[in-house]
Amino acid sequence: MNVITENTDVIVVSGGNAALVAMGLYTLEHFANDMMTTSCGNTDKAQMKIVLEKGYETVKWIGEKGVNWTLSLGKFFDDNKVNLSTIEILPVVGLMVKDEGIGLIDDLWRVVEKTDIKVFYSCPAYNLIQDGNRVLGVQARHIDSFINFFGQMILACGGFEASPRSFGTSLYYDYPVVDNTLAGLAKKIGIDLDVFVDTVIKFNAITSPGNFDLFHLDGNCINKSLDILKSNWALPIDKVPFVAYGTTCGITFTYGGIKTDTAA
């Protein structure tokens, strides 16, 4: 079990593999700069101020309710198979919920089940109950009738993952692809054999042997000769098996949705 304690303007996580982790400070100024940079300056400053002021106490409160926070080591590699004395991770990605989104939902459901909160399944919201601009409640469709719920409301919507159609067309499956020869790999992934092999040969010709260390930027780079540059870990591709990974754009955040204000 990881324990979260407060230390000035950082969160310290202990337990598990915490003793192996070297992580710098993540100050409020750094946090604010990251949000503004990621959004190209479009972050709502009033809401950002609330995140900065209430972030720590919110993380702590969620943990007290039963959400299992953990170090983000397992997100990037299998830490049970890595033998290192120290692991450096960026403070911006230092903390996560165990098992990520699925784990968060499981934890929250366990919390709800310990209360007297009623849960209605297969009961989608149909319409808001309003008095002018005031929202009094929500009308929901349940089996063959409608139910009206009155009181305070929290409206939430998911990203594309909630749509089976969008989910199926947005992600790749059946990767990675493995073969003991470059020719065999090219055939399996359906790309031009000659171009592929020629690219690997040219890449290998301007690289130098070395040790691959995932946790440190080694500066072993290629900044010329190839159309696609390599800023770190530019090592020869010459050991079998050869592995090709399917890649796609990753959604770090789900953008869009319901607009909120600072009173939400």
Number of helices: 7
Shape call: elongated
* Spatial separation of the terminal alpha carbons: 32 Å
Poorly predicted runs are 1-14
The gyration radius over C-alpha positions equals 24 Å
Say how many strands there are.
11
Q: Mean pLDDT across all residues, rounded?
A: 79
Indicate the percent of residues in helices. Answer: 25-40%
- Arrangement of strands in the largest sheet: 7-8-9
Tell me about the biggest sheet? Answer: 3 strands, antiparallel
Structural class: alpha+beta
Count of structural domains: 3
Give the DSSP E fraction (strand runs of 2 or more residues): 15-25%
What's the helix-strand series? EEEHHEHEEHEEEHEHHE
Domain FAD-dependent oxidoreductase 2 FAD-binding: 11-194
Organism: Scytalidium lignicola (Hyphomycete)
InterPro entries: FAD-dep_OxRdtase_2_FAD-bd, FAD-oxidoreductase_2, FAD/NAD-bd_sf, Succ_DH/fumarate_Rdtase_cat_sf
Protein name: FAD-dependent oxidoreductase 2 FAD-binding domain-containing protein
